[in-house]
Specification:
The protein has 749 residues and is of the alpha/beta class. It has 22 helices and 19 strands. The protein has a 7-stranded mixed beta sheet with strand order 1-12-14-13-15-19-16, sandwiched between helices. A 4-stranded antiparallel beta sheet has the order 3-2-11-5, with no helix packed on it. Strands 6-7-8-10 form a 4-stranded parallel beta sheet. It is globular, with a radius of gyration of 27 Å. About 6% of the residues have low confidence. Belongs to the peptidase M28 family. M28B subfamily. Its cofactor is Zn(2+). Keywords: Aminopeptidase, Calcium, Cell membrane, Disulfide bond, Glycoprotein, Hydrolase, Membrane, Metal-binding, Metalloprotease, Protease, Signal-anchor, Transmembrane, Transmembrane helix, Zinc. It is a single-pass type II membrane protein.
């Protein structure tokens, strides 16, 4: 009963909008005299299903293939010569007089980036007490094709790791989570050690940030074959170039920071003249050196560790026991045979020599626009980043190749005078995403006011195709119905008489009280791609769309060549999507969504789907927290559970002819601005640029409101009254946010 009460505002608002949509749609069809006004044809413009069919038929998989071939000719890490080459390619395509957009240009920012020193490569070694080198980790990935031999392939490194030299006994710290270091520290004094960790469980930077308080001097990180290769390890016949699995020398590069956007200009666009904070004031980056290595070197190190065996949950794919380390290596270690002097247990150290440097460099977004014919001041934005760590065939060029094909088809229709969207379409090819979503974040900071007031939705297609099994989509609940509508119109690749929707529901589904069994749409609760600034900072309704793999057939946490020198056209065309038909399906689905958002008379955003998810969140919150909160005299009934905003039904007897385009515009603005109502700039003072109280990131890992979940976890752990006060605070934040959102749907004041 109480859950229903809390949502009555949202649900009633949805009913108003449904009625308003029906009345408004037909109410502007004719004037009271029966003669249509002169402006009617343009103003009454609605989505044209025949136009969508034409778009779907013209999306060409071979064009996408050739786009990808061109985009992956050279490595194009942000701000390099290869990156500039892709900037020019995007501009050429979007400025083409036959297939281009109305306008295309570059937006430049001066951003703070981190690079290795090509003349002084980072090194990881095992050394004796006299610093005799007993083992050196591979500095460059093994070559299987000419792509790996390109001189512009950047050495594997951890962007934003500080330069420095760390030497100490090695310990194994699993995934580098706080709980991992806490457990390890109960067995071993971690002061003066070097920790080796595996990807997963905690963010990249967190593996070093979590280690530093325990006195750890440096951190290594690798990808365990159990987590990426289903345990396979041999490049003789098991891994790339024989399959999609990561070869032993493959190393995942990445940005080792926890904030998104330029680190020197928080909340300001990073223009040349912008104020910059001192580099020493940057937060969210490691303060001890960290370096990624391949699993062939990790195998050599981990299998030589001594002392107590790590827990079963910490064991990986190597054919040895993963020990904590004593700290250090066994007395029978392989390294003992590499020195003429017999060394005692643990006398061999692991040494990190890191020579990274930071600099402010010019990075470009490439922007394009198709101007709207009726509401040019309402924007539907479609984005994908352009920069990669190496050749980046899948991340991000699969998405860029799809975006180029989508804009080719739409641009041709515009240039031929056959179509123009009702609302403006803006396309963004973001720069420097791999360093922390920088291009998109700077864009939202520069145009904060305009985008906040005018943006209908943001569509993100980063990695368009992880694999070729099924659609995967995440977004605000209000976009669920438009995703479903688009997916139903697209044929699933390789399956006769099966839509992308029907295939999707087989792989990932849930039961909706209102709709029955439907595909499962994920949530955009973190900062995994360029949707982050649009969702968390601006509160813009957003979605992220891709094709992915069958998770019942592999345990890979992501496609195995991710961020390595093996993410190439050869890899994509042979193992990810032969024939590029899954790329084609994504282009059709995402393009369909884009057209519907831009052309529909009334925005196809559904408030009742939002209400259903909020109800799920509330139910989880009650189950997890209500009993303990009541014991502490914190009443959910006085906060979330008694939000009861009554919104009267609209006057349905109102004559249809009284409704004008401004009525439709008002309804659309209510839909467009709903997510803005969930923004609270003070709710998360410790989380940079997170303001959305429903979708902010959470460390608690609970499927409920993030601020409440994190506050409760902290209070439960500490037991301190000030932390329980914070729980009460977040209950009030939620109460007022949900009430405020419901009020935005009221028909009149």
């Amino acid at each position: 009963r109480m859950i229903t009460q809390v949502l009555i505002g949202i649900l009633s608002g949805a009913a108003i909008l449904t009625a308003g949509i029906l009345i408004g749609h037909y109410g502007i069809s004719q004037s009271s005299s029966g003669a249509p006004p002169s402006w009617l044809k343009d103003v009454a413009k609605d989505v044209d299903e025949s136009l969508i069919e034409k778009f779907l038929s013209e999306v060409d998989n071979i064009q996408i293939q050739e786009n990808l071939r061109e985009l992956t000719k050279v490595p194009h890490m942000a701000t390099t010569a290869g990156d500039e080459q892709t900037v020019q390619f995007m501009l050429k395509r979007w400025q083409d007089p036959e297939t281009g957009l109305d306008q295309a240009w570059r937006e430049e920012y001066m951003v703070y980036l981190s690079f290795p020193d090509p003349k002084n490569p980072n090194k990881v070694t095992v050394v004796s007490p006299s610093d005799t080198v007993l083992h050196t980790a591979r500095e460059k990935e093994k070559s299987y094709t000419p792509d790996q031999d390109d001189p512009e392939v950047v050495q594997p490194y951890a962007a934003y790791s500080p330069a420095g030299h760390a030497k100490g006994k090695l310990v194994y710290a699993n995934q580098g989570k706080p709980s991992d270091y806490q457990l390890l520290n109960q067995t071993i004094d971690l002061r003066g050690t070097v920790a080796i960790t595996r990807y997963g469980g905690a963010g990249r930077a967190a593996k070093a940030i979590n280690a530093a308080p325990y006195g750890v001097l440096g951190v290594l990180v690798y990808t365990d074959p159990l987590d990426i290769n289903d345990g396979l390890m041999s490049d003789i016949d098991e891994t790339y170039p024989h399959s999609w699995y990561l070869p032993p020398s493959g190393v995942e590069r990445g940005s080792f920071n926890t904030h998104y956007g330029d680190l020197l200009t928080p909340y300001l666009a990073a223009k040349e003249e912008t104020y910059r904070i001192p580099a020493e004031n940057i937060t969210g980056i490691p303060h001890i050196p960290i370096q990624p290595i391949g699993f062939e070197d990790a195998y050599t190190l981990i299998c030589e560790l001594g002392e107590e065996a790590a827990p079963a949950a910490w064991q990986g794919a190597f054919n040895c026991t993963y020990n904590f380390g004593g700290p250090g290596f066994k007395s029978t270690s392989y390294f003992n045979n590499r020195t003429p002097v017999l060394l005692k247990k643990g006398e061999r150290d692991v040494k990190l020599d890191i020579f990274n440097h930071e600099e402010v460099k010019n990075s470009s977004n490439v922007m394009g626009v198709i101007r709207g014919s009726v509401e040019p001041d309402r924007y539907v934005i479609y984005g994908n980043h352009r920069d990669s760590w190496v050749h980046g065939a899948i991340d991000p060029s699969s998405g860029t190749s799809v975006m180029l094909e989508l804009t080719r088809v739409l641009g041709s229709l515009v240039q031929q005078g056959k179509w123009r969207p009702r609302r403006s379409m803006i396309f963004g090819s973001w720069g420097a995403e791999e360093f922390g979503l920088i291009g998109s974040a700077e864009y939202t900071e520069q145009y904060f006011a305009k985008l906040s007031e005018r943006t209908v939705a943001y569509v993100n297609v980063d990695i368009a195709v992880f694999a070729n099994a099924t659609l995967r989509a995440s977004g605000m609940p209000s976009v669920q119905n438009i995703l479903f509508a688009a997916a139903k119109q697209v044929d699933a690749p390789g399956l006769d008489s099966t839509s992308v929707y029907d295939n999707w529901v087989r792989y990932a589904n849930r039961t909706s009280p209102a709709l029955g069994i439907i595909p499962r749409v994920g949530y955009l609760s973190g900062a995994g791609s360029d949707y982050a600034a649009f969702v968390h900072y601006l509160g813009i309704t957003s979605m992220d769309i891709s094709y992915t793999y069958d998770r019942t057939k592999t345990n890979a946490r992501i496609y195995p060549a991710y961020h390595t020198a093996y993410d190439t056209f050869d890899y994509a065309s042979r193992f990810i999507d032969p024939g590029f038909v899954s790329h084609q399906a994504i282009a059709r689905t995402a393009g369909n969504v884009l057209i519907r958002l831009a052309d529909s008379l009334v925005l196809p955003l559904n408030c009742s789907d939002y209400a259903e998810i909020l109800e799920d969140y509330l139910g989880t919150a009650m189950t997890l927290y209500e009993h303990q909160l009541r014991a502490r005299n914190i009443s959910m009934g006085k906060d979330i559970m008694q939000v009861n905003v009554f919104i009267p039904a609209p006057p349905l007897s109102l004559h249809r002819s009284c409704l004008r385009p401004l009525k439709v515009r008002r309804i659309n603005d209510q839909l467009m601005l709903l997510d803005r109502a969930f923004l609270d700039p003070l709710a998360f003072p410790d989380k940079h640029a997170y303001r959305h109280v429903i979708w902010a990131s959470s460390d608690a890992g609970k499927p409920t409101f993030p601020g409440l979940a994190d506050a409760f976890a902290t209070a439960e752990s500490s037991g301190q009254s000030r932390h329980w006060d914070k729980v009460h605070y977040h209950l009030s934040v939620l109460s007022q946010a949900i009430e405020g959102a419901a009020h935005t749907l009221v028909d009149v004041i």
